[in-house]
Amino acid sequence: MIRARGLGWRYAGRPAPALRDVELDLEEGACLLVAGPSGSGKSTLGLAIAGLIPHEFAGTWSGELDVAGMSVSRTARARLAGATGILFQESAAQLVMELVEDDIAFGLENRAWDRPAMQRRVAGTLEEMGIAGLARRRSVTLSGGEQQRVALAAVLAPRPRVLVLDEPTSNLDPAGSAAFYDALVRLRRGPAPPTIVLVEHRVDLALPLADRLLALDATGHPIAAGPARETFASSGAALAAAGIWTPGEATRRLAKAMASGGRARRNGQPLLEARDLGHRYGDGPPALHGVTVTIGAGERVALVGANGSGKSTLSRLAAGLLAAREGSVRLAGTDPARLPARELPHRAAYVFQDPAVQFLADRVADELHVGLRTPEEHAAADELLGRLDLDRPGLADASPHRLSGGEQRRLSVGCALARDPALVVLDEPTYGQDRVHHETLVDLIRGRVDRGAAMLAATHDVLFAAEAAERAIGLRAGQVAWDGPTAALFADVAARAELALG
Amino acid sequence: MSGIAAAALAAARPTGPSEASLLGRTSPLVKLAVAIAWLTGMTLSLDPLPPLILALAAFVGGALLGAIRLRRMATWMAPLWIGALGIAAFNALFAAANADPAAVEAFRVGPGRVTEPALIAGLALGLRVLAIASVSAVFVLTTGPTRLADALVQQARLPARFAYGALAAYQAVPRLADDLSDLRAARRTRGLRGGWHPRVLLGLLVLAVRHADRLALAMDARAFGLGPRSAYREVRITLRDPAVLGLGLGALLLALLAGGTLGP
């Protein structure tokens, strides 16, 4: 179904190819896991298999790629699009129509199906994907997990022969990810399943589905290929060295973190005090209600809960980016939302889920220096750039917006740590990070915390929560549903389920 | 964080346009034609009566034929009424006709006198604004964006790329508000002031372009714009379309007759 010989691609304006010398043979109905560190060309390969590269991008193509019997570089986009479908990680950017039902029909309309056939297929797809109840909902009112299942249904409705999934669950809470993968498992058990190409960092989620593996290194070069489990067993060390998670590794580390965890570290003075805190956006329903928590100086806290449970809202209130509409927040005795802009960075730092919103400089090297005042701060920022692995020539001079997702994330965490804030607030800090950079981030954050800062990290990443935080606060529908040692939370099956931790 | 403004917007519009009603099922193009006819018709008269009749007709039509709940219509219309009243008062108070000693005085406001011609001209202007705003409100409250795009493509033969591209972009508008508050917050975390700094606007542009790129790619990946298209929802012309058109034009004719514009 998919056959590649010496496939390579270099984006226009980039010095090095994103992908090189890829050889691939995938039979019909198989599922291929594409693994590799960030910037290894995984997404590029997905875009090529979906027929978007080379037709919708500028660059240089080399080698051969055949998908469903068509040569991708020599076949018109219209014919390729008929046979393929691709799902991206950001669900909000792929729902086109206002209503769910219309969005599922969109791909059928584009293929000029007649109306009765379209109506049957839309109804059938809604039923198969278990989202019939959402048919008449407006897409913008859906939760992240619902949006991604609708987006999958919309891509599947025309029954593509090849389905590309590019980190489809990285925005979802663990329960939402599990539900998404369950839907994929059902799809593969059904009649005439599509051939699937799955790009995923989290190997443990993908392995029950994948029967083949293609591993790429940081330069876009294949380092291992073959049957998934056997290849992981035989080349595990090489894959780990290249920054790829290996099967069971996350589970083992989670167990270890839980065994050693549980000791409270509530040593310092109260730093953050929230009393009866509540918030709503506009006339909307309460995003947060009656939240009373105290975080001590130097404490490391993971903020967990389902998509939409109020994690981002509580983090923003804590960092003084949002003014409380009910109750009060005090950060070292002052309302952080009322602090003058010059003083805030010394009290609280904030790392956004989408790194792109927080870049203020034209060059990567300048980004860490924004807003710094003393020579010591500037010297520390230069040193930090090296630790973030962003001081290489070509990278340091680039615009922050040209960096890969993983590089942007590191830079954004660096910006927050460039000063000595008393509280570091992070929103999904490990989102989309490969193994090596996950470690770098955890180390960086730990280093700063060990020098006395407190941490509040909103996260879906169970391993990060277990390794980086002794205490967990669980939110459910805007209210505190759990507050205690992280290890105790992960040991409590009922609480885990309630907080969508799977 | 993304979607917070979107969720707020959705909550503020719990029911969506009343599409099940007679006006809701009428082709958006017919409603648009009536609105344009009213707009043009009102320029024919300087009398306050025709726009008053049309504003009331829009209100009654919206309630009876559009099945818009009175409460909902009132929340939309109240600011329009207040605005129109303000325009009328301003124009009546500061009209040049007030200085004309020959004009009949209507009443005095402190030292100033308001003459009858000024009062009538002010009222006519205010009521025209009100009528235009009312008919637009009824159009918006009975027309969903999807149905408008469908009608533009199927009946006005607008290119699908344009109509559905605009519809997709419309879905992203609430996101822009989220991006703006994120960008301002990001400056604050770095010790800088937010506001409308040029950097904030540049950032907004970068994010909007990035989002548009991704959306366009997702649409292309779903075979959009690659060949002839079919339509999932058909916007059909039925008897109700000429009926609504007739009612609309009839109301306009009556209003103009009542204002004496078309009379002998």
Short description:
By secondary structure, chain A is an alpha/beta fold.
Main sheet record of chain A? 6 strands, mixed
Let me know the largest β-sheet of chain B.
Answer: 2 strands, antiparallel
Uncertain runs of chain A: none
Proportion of helical residues of chain B:
55-70%
Subunit organisation of the chains: heterodimer
Could you please describe the fold and organization of this structure?
The complex is a heterodimer of chains A (502) and B (264). With 502 residues, chain A is α/β, with parallel strands linked by helices. Chain A folds into 2 domains: 246 residues, P-loop containing nucleotide triphosphate hydrolases (Rossmann fold); 185 residues, P-loop containing nucleotide triphosphate hydrolases (Rossmann fold, 3-Layer(aba) Sandwich), CATH 3.40.50.300. In chain A, 35% of the residues lie in helices and 24% in strands. In chain A, helix 3 packs across helix 4 and helix 9 runs parallel beside helix 16. Chain A starts with a strand and ends with a helix. The model of chain A has no long low-confidence stretch (mean pLDDT 89). By secondary structure, chain B is mainly alpha-helical. Chain B has 2 domains: 156 residues, no CATH class; 76 residues, no CATH class. In chain B, helix 3 packs antiparallel against helix 6, helix 3 runs parallel beside helix 11 and helix 7 packs antiparallel against helix 8. The radius of gyration of chain B is 24 Å and the shape is flat. Chain B starts with a helix and ends in a 6-residue tail after the last helix. The N terminus of chain B is likely disordered.
